[in-house]
Structure formats: structure tokens, C-alpha cells
Design a protein that fits this description.
The complex is a heterodimer of chains A (162) and B (223). Chain A has 162 residues and is of the alpha+beta class. Chain A is 19% helix and 27% strand. Chain B starts with a helix and ends in a 6-residue tail after the last helix. Chain B is 73% helix and 0% strand. Classes of the chains: A alpha+beta (162), B mainly alpha (223).
Chain lengths: 162, 223
């Protein structure tokens, strides 16, 4: 860029400023060819470097927690809640009125895990105070969807969640 | 492809309009001038810096999965090597890179000694370089304990036993370095903190000074 200082310099003929390398010329030339080759090889090298790095950020294989959960009925006691991790999903098994029920332990409001209150016979969510009864129905709090039910079977006195 | 080139040219033009970047890039990168007499041994310092940057980068990737606790450290490294995609590559690059760094700083130092570049006006280059040598060695030492293998543990035990030879203060130094009487989880945590933050920060500071001074005094030429 030229400025007023150029007129005041007295170093002799104007020195050429550093110029950008010649842009890719209109007709093919050796320089353009070499520029293209170097750009291509740099691109290949960049891809070879980038590929493992991007791969690294993919999720690793993890040993997943079991899908199948078995609980002998004799192990269940009245008003007791058991929590399990089933492939990353927390589920809760309660036994009330001699009847087991299995729910997804995530509160239907925003997903915090509910706790079971044995005395009050309810599920209570510590985050925003949601309350569910022992059938999973929403009783109080910022919820109107019941807890999600999980299917289970009872075979040979063993409760099986497949 | 043509449009990509146009885009690159547009970015260059806009940057040049605002920052006059092209002369800076040329002077320091693409058209950098070095003495005609500089031999291939003059590459070692820059290579050490390149490997340092690779170590920082692979180190950051490893840090995403490493757990600095005696119960979990070895498992986390094994997890990286076996389960994380390309984890084996990142871990191996970091491990080999550590060896390369030591080799390169020694070769660089050997060149400086042989050609006596440490003389005036470059004395401070030598001093900052010595600090960098110690820092590099400390990085290798602290990093080696982190995978918590048999070699790591016993190597750290022997290495941290050495200061006990210092008269009077030796025992105290050993206890301070180990954060206790023996190598433990406390030692691992301490070495981990040193390895990922403290020594790299000191290294970067010293490198900045080292490079600025070299710029100012110029690359040394034979007399």
C-alpha cells in the first residue's frame, strides 16, 4: 500500500515490496504445474493426518451392561425398590401388594432419576419435586405423564426382564 | 476445485487488505531466508519444536480418556489402545514422540556445542535451551509414570530415590517429589499435574524466549 511516507524516503530507486507469488497463470506453465502438484500432495497428507484424528472422536466400543435382568421372587420384600442399569437405562423394580412393577426410573419431566419413598409409598423426583404413586401415575409436581412401564415376565418364580 | 481456489484467493485478499499478512507469511514461512552455510543439522531445533507440537496434540487426545487414579490408570490406557478408534495410533505416536523429542534436543544441543554457537551474543539462548532440556527430561519422566505399568512404577521409584543422595536435604526432597514416603496415588496425581500443565507452561514460556532471541540475533554463521 502506498502512503505519504513513500514520498519522503530517499533510498534511491523504489525497492519492490514483497510480492505475492505469481497467481496461477492463464496458460499452463511449469510453475503452475508444480504449484498444483504440491497442493495435491499437501491435500493428500492433510487427509491422511485428519482421518485417524476424526476417527478418534467416534464413540468407542463399550462393554454394555446386560440387557436381561433376572430376580428371584423370593428376593423381593414388600415395599422395596431395586434399581438396575440396563444398557445405560436406569430401571426400578418395586414390589407392592405382592405385585412387582417395573418402570423406567427417569422422571418424565426432565429425566432426573426418581427415588422410592418406602414410608409414603411414592416415587419422588429430587430435581423439581415431582411425585408418582406406586402405579407410576403422576400425582404432583411439573408432570402429567406417568412413568414409562417396562415389560417383564415371571417364569419359575423368577422375574425376568428380557 | 476452481471455486475452492477462488475462495482461498478471496480469503487471502481480505486478510491482506486488513492485516497485510502476505509479507509476514513469506518472511517467516514460505520465503524464509536462512544463511547459505546452514547445514542439515540446523533442522534439529525446528524438528524438536514440531515433535513438541505433535506431543501436545496427541497428549490432548489421550487426556480425553485417561484416568489419573492408580485403580483406573492402566485400565484407561488399555481402553485407549484396544477400544478407542485409532487410540492405538495416538498412544503409540505419543510414546514414540517422547523418545524422538529427547533424541532431537540432544542432537540440537550437540550441534550447538560442536559449532560453539553458545558464544556471545548467544549465551542466553544456551541458558534457555538448558532449561528446555531439563523440562523435556522432566516431561519424559513424569509422563512415563502415568500408564502405571510395572516399568512405570519401578522406574519412578528408582528415579525418585536418586535425590536421597543429596546430603542433609536428600530425604526431604524425595518425600516432597513423591508427595509421601513411597510412590502412591498422590505421586501419580502430582506427576499428572506436572506433566499436563506445569512443565508445558514453563516449556512454552522458555520456547517463546528462545525463539524471539534467535530471531533477534539471527541464525549463527561460521566465522
Amino acid at each position: 500500500m502506498n502512503d505519504s511516507r513513500d514520498n519522503q524516503r530517499s533510498n534511491g530507486p523504489a525497492r519492490p515490496r514483497a510480492v505475492a507469488p505469481a497467481p496461477a497463470p492463464a496458460r499452463p506453465s511449469r510453475r503452475g504445474f508444480f504449484h498444483a502438484c504440491i497442493a495435491l500432495m499437501t491435500g493428500i497428507a492433510a487427509f491422511i493426518l485428519a482421518f485417524p484424528i476424526f476417527s478418534f472422536f467416534r464413540l468407542p466400543k463399550r462393554i454394555s451392561t446386560a440387557k436381561r435382568i433376572e430376580v428371584p421372587i423370593s428376593q423381593l420384600s414388600e415395599d422395596q425398590a431395586l434399581f438396575f442399569d440396563r444398557q445405560g437405562v436406569q430401571i426400578v423394580l418395586i414390589y407392592t401388594g405382592r405385585e412387582p412393577k417395573v418402570f423406567d426410573a427417569a422422571c418424565t419431566h426432565l429425566g432426573c432419576l426418581v427415588t422410592w419413598d418406602q414410608n409414603e409409598h411414592i416415587f419422588h423426583c429430587p430435581c423439581h419435586g415431582a411425585v408418582f404413586d406406586d402405579k407410576g401415575q403422576a400425582v404432583k409436581g411439573p408432570v402429567n405423564t406417568p412413568l414409562k412401564k417396562i415389560d417383564f415376565e415371571i417364569k419359575n418364580n423368577v422375574l425376568v426382564i428380557a | 476445485m476452481g471455486r475452492l481456489i477462488e475462495l482461498i484467493k478471496l480469503i487471502r485478499k481480505e486478510l491482506d487488505d486488513r492485516f497485510e499478512l502476505t509479507p509476514v507469511v513469506q518472511k517467516n514461512l514460505t520465503h524464509k531466508q536462512v544463511p547459505r552455510t546452514l547445514s542439515w543439522a540446523g533442522c534439529f531445533g525446528g524438528l524438536a519444536f514440531l515433535i513438541f507440537m505433535i506431543q501436545v496434540f496427541t497428549g490432548i487426545l489421550l487426556l480425553m480418556y485417561y484416568k489419573p487414579d492408580p485403580e483406573r490408570a492402566w485400565d484407561s490406557v488399555t481402553f485407549i489402545k484396544s477400544n478407542v478408534p485409532m487410540g492405538w495410533l495416538i498412544q503409540r505416536v505419543h510414546s514414540v514422540g517422547a523418545n524422538m523429542m529427547i533424541a532431537l534436543v540432544f542432537l540440537h544441543m550437540a550441534r550447538v556445542v560442536y559449532l560453539r554457537i553458545f558464544r556471545k551474543p548467544r549465551e542466553l539462548h544456551w541458558i534457555s535451551g538448558s532449561v528446555l532440556l531439563v523440562a523435556t527430561t522432566m516431561m519424559a519422566f513424569t509422563g512415563y509414570l502415568l500408564p502405571w505399568t510395572q516399568l512405570s512404577y519401578w522406574g519412578a521409584k528408582v528415579g525418585t530415590e536418586i535425590p536421597s543422595a543429596v546430603p542433609r536435604l536428600g530425604e526431604l526432597i524425595v518425600v516432597l517429589i513423591r508427595r509421601g514416603q513411597s510412590i502412591s496415588g498422590e505421586t501419580l496425581g502430582f506427576f499428572f499435574a506436572m506433566h499436563i500443565w506445569v512443565i508445558p507452561a514453563v516449556s512454552v514460556l522458555m520456547m517463546v524466549l528462545h525463539f524471539l532471541m534467535i530471531r533477534r540475533t539471527g541464525i549463527s554463521r561460521p566465522l
